[in-house]
């Protein structure tokens, strides 16, 4: 019994470590794509908003700081019945700066993907870039860098690597683990996790997959997976960084995120995907859907094993004093709560 508990716990911790060590080898590979400096396709930036009045001007300023030919840039704010004057603020911003900005309004809120699909109908760019209002691009060359990678016809989608907004320590260590995986998966073929801070897609591919998926929450990641399933690269290159402002209700936000990832992987497993993408997709699906549950299984088995098992369980709890371990356990809890919550709301 205690052996079973120990084996379950070992399997739980070994799987992500093994994947990380394995994926790191992909980092040494060449990209196999040819980015081209000075490639400036027409771009439509879409900012979806729901009650973002405190952030929308800073977000538009952020975009205005980008070094990109203005005649090749279309900027759309698509708002879904905000009650805090977000679209009015966006319009005022555009008037004051005499900047060409299109503000679309949905009469009611039907979710981000639904709003993105409305904006997509108005998009004139060859590339569509989605960026959330609560995000920041530190580098004025961000758009140029994204465009550079999209010069290669095999690349269908590009996202950024995430930098934690302030703070180092465990959050930074976790980001490091996470970013290494995104980059390694990108080099292998595609990463199944995209970021709302910057998700760039070829418009023709968005049209081909029927627009942004509205039946699940993970619109950015699942769109990337659908594009990868069509045989295109979906990548997070090493020179693209973005920042997300961490919201107030941290743990609720973490659970929502986890719900979206679970929805993405559950739906992705049903797709036919290129063989080069499958190791990545299956590993990530395992880590998000199955691996967390080995923990409570190990705990239950240990508790049923009598005193030696209780000692093992006590050790597992005592390790919570150690912060990286605590962070990891918290993530596993978010994934499990999210899986249960998905049973009654997709949000
Ligand atoms: P999270 O980062 O996944 O937790 O989601 P956020 O709450 O930050 O939302 C991402 C972006 O989508 C933000 O810019 C929101 O304002 C926007 N958003 C969320 N829901 C809706 C919606 O129903 N309609 C529109 N147009 N935008 C939305
Ligand atoms: Mn956000």
Rg over C-alpha atoms, rounded to the nearest angstrom: 21 Å
Number of helices: 13
Number of strands: 10
Shape: globular
How is this structure best described in words?
The protein is of the alpha/beta class and 347 residues long. It is built from 13 helices and ten strands. The protein has helices spanning 2-24, 53-64, 86-97, 112-122, 142-150, 169-188, 203-208, 219-229, 250-268, 278-290, 294-303, 307-318, 323-341, and strands at 43-49, 73-80, 102-106, 127-130, 135-136, 155-159, 161-163, 199-202, 233-235, 241-244. The longest helix has 23 residues, at 2-24. Manganese (II) ion binds at residues 132, 134, 244.
Task: Give the arrangement of secondary structure elements.
Layout: H1 2-24, E1 43-49, H2 53-64, E2 73-80, H3 86-97, E3 102-106, H4 112-122, E4 127-130, E5 135-136, H5 142-150, E6 155-159, E7 161-163, H6 169-188, E8 199-202, H7 203-208, H8 219-229, E9 233-235, E10 241-244, H9 250-268, H10 278-290, H11 294-303, H12 307-318, H13 323-341
Parallel strand pairs: 1-2, 1-4, 2-3, 6-9, 7-10
Antiparallel strand pairs: 4-8, 5-10, 6-8
Helix pairs in contact: 1-11, 2-3, 8-9, 9-10, 9-13, 11-12
The protein binds guanosine-5'-diphosphate and manganese (II) ion (MN).
Residues 132, 134, 244 line the site of manganese (II) ion.
Compact summary:
With 347 residues, the chain is an alpha/beta fold.
Q: Which features would summarize this protein structure in a list?
A:
347 residues; alpha/beta; 7-stranded mixed beta sheet; 3-stranded mixed beta sheet; 13 helices; 10 strands; 51% helix; globular; binds guanosine-5'-diphosphate; binds manganese (II) ion
